[in-house]
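# nightly structure sweep
# worker-07 picked up a monomer target from the shared queue
# config: single-sequence mode, recycle default, output format = structure tokens
# input follows
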Amino acid sequence: MPQLRIALAQVNASVGDIAGNSSMVLDWTREAVQQGAHLVAFPETVLAGYPVEDLALRKSFAAANRAEVESLAQRLQQAGCGDALVVVGHLDRDDEGVRNSASLLYDGRVVATYDKHHLPNYGVFDEARYFAPGFDLPIVRLHGLDVGVVICEDIWQNGGPVSALGEVGVDLVVCINSSPYERAKDDQRTPLVAGRAAEAGAPMAYVNMVGGQDELVFDGDSMVVGTDGQVLARAPQFTEHLLVLDMDLTAGGHTATTVPEPEVPAEGGMQFVPASRFLRPAFDITRTVLQADPLPGYEPLPAQPLPEPLSDEAEVWAALVTGLRDYVQKNGFRSVTFGFSGGIDSAVCAALCADAIGADSLYGVSMPSHYSSEHSRSDAADLARRLGCHFDVQPIGDMVDVFVSRLELSGLAEENVQARCRGVTLMALSNQHGHLVLAPGNKTELAVGYSTIYGDAVGGFAPIKDVPKTLVWKLAQWRNAEAEKRGEVPPIPENSISKPPSAELRPDQVDTDSLPPYEILDVVLDGYVEGDRGYADLVGEGFDAALVERIIQLVDRAEYKRRQYPPGTKITLKAFGRDRRLPVTNRWREVRP
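# output follows
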């Protein structure tokens, strides 16, 4: 059987940095070639980064992408990589519009370009807004083996290029991706890749982006899957990695360039033909021979063990660390700051910061008011000691007194002015020292509006914005347990985990004064926010009618706050922001009949 050594370059691209991303492709290809790779594949739009949003509408941006592809092909040859087939994702543009493309570079030339056919237009994806679908389906023969290329969403939808490749025949399918992370996504991803490999009748090499881009995190998890569904090789999640694998492939000697028409049953026949066979798009299939003869036999590399799967908490923690690290570093910040309250949310955010950018880049600020308990002050200081980060105490009592006395504030107005004095303090320190201010609010509190706009909601990034409160506790316990396993000091004070949460804006305040217990609240919110279930649906699931109505009202009334909240890492199926788009001015209410 013909051999082929493939390399999947799971890399971290930066949106808009075409030159930097191109240099990265060159460096990783050089490394792959040094390891003997004959085919090197990079993620979707690796030259442009992903997602580029409205940058795609700029003709200059698409033109710069195309020019860099042509230049990169020549530089790869000059670097001694011309004999390797390199698959590179980028933007392109033609008379039909902007394209999400994959170019195949070989011998100093762009030998073929495939334009993504299925364009996702749901959740965080707006590709139908930007791109025109492609119908050209190039197949290249490399060392006697026929290789087809598809892009990300092409494998998530039925009846597209994978099916066409299976009909005309290929020996290997390369799928390049920028597939964002969400919890348990691998439960869908691996069976999907296996199913498409079987459909194509050829193994699938799936390479994914890694790293953070605004709200999105890409987890990598690149893999090679055989037609029998067996995972032949896999890259670790949340880290750049060059996955190199020797493959023994069957050369089919394929020549077809036309997808067969579906068989129509004879008159009076009862044979069933799926409607998708009739509605299948027509692809213009071309075949290009780069190297007709198989490689001489060679000694394959030793097979590498598959990485151990991460637990749910470990996977979420890695996603949050990646999203925070890349937001800070890619935007040029050297340090971050936020309020150390002594509570669980700020403690988890602080531990994330220490893991993401290092404790020396973290500046915690305790801002006690008249209502701050002694344990909150001591827990904040203990957190800083455990992490080894910078720590400062800036009491806000005098500032609050000025507002309260001058404006004669009381009740909720007096409570909120405390949060806003803290927000002003943090922004002043940010302006003075150049820190990025973080907002430590969680998804549950953001859902029900349990935050103060222009107060604890100030900042440029919200690390746990998409983390429900109950999961915040689980992550804290997991992170401390991991530290103990390694013989380290647990980063989060036990008292911050065990004590009842409180905003401490009035005497003896606890969260359950205003909110249902979090273990109930999170379940209802999951149904309403992520499941889009209405009042009747939730009551039908057994929840108390008055409780459901109250929670729904809290969520609906807080939309204006969520619109003004900083971006934060997406880990769930439906995060606030790009995933969930509701009008602020909205009179529709889910109420009991």
